[in-house]
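I hope you will forgive my troubling you with a question about protein structure. The matter concerns a single protein, recorded as an amino acid sequence and a row of backbone structure tokens. Please examine both parts with care and let me know of anything in them that strikes you as inconsistent. Thank you for your consideration; the sequence and its tokens are set out here:
***
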Amino acid sequence: MVNSAAPISFRTTPHPAPVPGATRAEAIADPGFGTIFTDHMVVIEYTAGKGWHDATVGPRQPIPLDPAAAVLHYAQEIFEGLKAYRLADGGMALFRPTENAARFNRSAQRLAMPTLPQDLFVEAIRQLVAVDKDWFPSVEGGSLYIRPFMFASEAFLGVRPARQFKFVVIASPVGNYFKSGAPAVSIWISSDYARAAPGGTGAAKCGGNYAASLVPQAEAIARGHDQVVFLDAAEHKWVEELGGMNLFFVMDDGQVVTPPLTGTILPGITRDSLLQLLRDEGRAVSEEPYSVQQWQDDARSGRLVECFACGTAAVVTAVGNVAGEDTEFTIGSGQAGPLTNHLRAQLTGIQRGEQPDPHSWILRLD
């Protein structure tokens, strides 16, 4: 689809009644995850033949939507997730935002949506963080979770790509994704559901993928587990990913294994960053298929000493217990192992400016 090449300027409209400072301070003292939102949002319009236009920073408010809007009928919708961090020197920064922009555009292409210039994607986030910086939570591990998304806003009924879209960015002050104090998460192997199939939208970050994971995720929680893990759709044999996180397996000889990107797994930016950090240290890393039978056998024999999940929201989280219809096993001690803790500390240290950034992953916002 045609994109506007000319620079786009943002029109800012301050919120006429922002949340009072005292109320805001109380809210961000213990924000949880994804339930509190800042005062403003960014909206940029797209029209076929015209490209991107009318970029605004204004009050966060409901979005008027025609009942025939294409997103409601044909699910043309994608999103991203990234965080703004407070650096050790008091400044604020984003972590690898151009990678989010690139993945956003790959998702857009898969769903027949217009791509967005990477610099415009990043500038939209910069504009929102600047106006809502006072919402940054002071809680340990806190950050501003940024949610850019795009949807088809054209009103029509007919199976074709829409010609009008809205790109929106909202922000939420957040704490830790999982409850603090938990040594590791417990996950349930789904035997009845698959997350994605070859040729589908598994590598795109679209809402439909997550909607399809809600029933098996609820099943996992009902059985007393934190997350669901999906196997491949063809053989129902190979481990793929959790409902929203990639998986890594650490062997007793130091080798680290993670499932390969074959189009059915979301290419996580945290996943890619951890692979780079592991290779920087000279560790043996393999992106190769890993079966659920191997997972069980390696855990029981002691060959598998650690397992962890990773993603923007949860960062790096140990997996301690795994269960399925006909199996249950514990990995190592059932708690976070030394490599899991090391990688989490290293990654969060880079994100918060507390450790060197050899790959220039940090983009300062001040």
